[in-house]
Amino acid sequence: MTPRINYAEQSSEYFKKFAAFSTALNGSSIEAGTRHLVEIRASQLNGCGLCVDMHIKQATIHGERPLRLHHLAIWRESPLFAPRERACLAWTEVLTKIPEHGVPDELYERVRTQLSEKEVSDLTFIVMSINAWNRANVAFKTVPGAFDAAYGLDKARLN
């Protein structure tokens, strides 16, 4: 795959501000482990190789079990995810691939049994952020692993 333009260089002022926004989400009410799962799942759905690669490495560095990462694509069938994680993954999927008639009330109500209003709101911003990164990296064919050294992802030892 040949990368296209370097959007981080071409629009550096927006890139920096969006990166700061995304970094600020680290302080959200959604725990880091769940956030990694959400970012990986949205990236899988969007076909963003860079983000799948990056977030699997981050999750690995933060102690996520390999089998759970393998099961993420089949989370509905897997017994490895807690109800709260399932709610977050369901919300991620519906916001990543919004159905024609919007988010079903039944799904919203199910998510609300696991998450507070603040958590649903914070999770929504996390999903918005990863979907935007996915779109930019897919559009410009950013190469997976390209930023490993810069972001310390080589520590995952998954090369």
Any descriptors?
single chain, mainly alpha, 63% helix, 9 helices, AhpD-like, 159 residues, globular
Record the SSE blueprint.
Layout: H1 7-10, H2 12-24, H3 32-46, H4 49-61, H5 66-71, H6 83-96, H7 105-112, H8 117-139, H9 148-151
Describe this structure in words.
The protein contains 9 helices and no strands. The protein is 63% helix and 0% strand. With 159 residues, the chain is an all-alpha fold. It has one domain (31-156): AhpD-like (Up-down Bundle), CATH 1.20.1290.10. Helix 3 crosses helix 8 and helix 6 (83-96) runs antiparallel to helix 7 (105-112). The protein starts with 6 loop residues before the first helix and ends in an 8-residue tail after the last helix. The mean pLDDT is 95.
